[in-house]
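Sequence and structure are no longer studied apart. As an example, we show below a sequence and the tokens encoding its fold:
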Amino acid sequence: MDNVGLFLPTTYEFDVAQLQDVNVNTPEFKELLVRLYGNVNEIVSALNLKETGKYTLTEFVTGKTWYPISNPMVERPAFRIVVPFGALVNNACKQVPHGITVTPTFRIKIIDCVANRPQNLPGTPFSAVPIPYVSTTNPPEGVEIFIGGVNITICTTSIVTDWTQYTDVDVILEYTKQL
């Protein structure tokens, strides 16, 4: 079964007395080395499959892999980058370059974005809004996001909300580079 996730035993059993008395010229020692190499290989494989929770301003390999397309034997590695977007604008669109080299095989897999309104403005409580966002109480008020070949574009529509108060916006992009 291939979908059980990542599991490593918490202990590997070796007889310590046997390890101290082992003759390096025996088949038992060769078997011990094979078992040790196998255990190290399991640990390395597990580390390579682990998703890394690091969010940087430069391209970073996440540890995630996506299903194969062109070669059924090769899963596609995922990359992540965080793009500081700055403050939102009211009833307009703002563009910020993402800095990713886009090729014909490039694919965005995950867009994650939250706009934060810090509590540093008088009479303005902290709040955060996921992007994209559509107001259910003041439609068509909302925020949309679009990723192009060069820029990230965020557009706002405002009836009540002052989107310029949302000054802390990071866009997290996860993507693959090959098919």
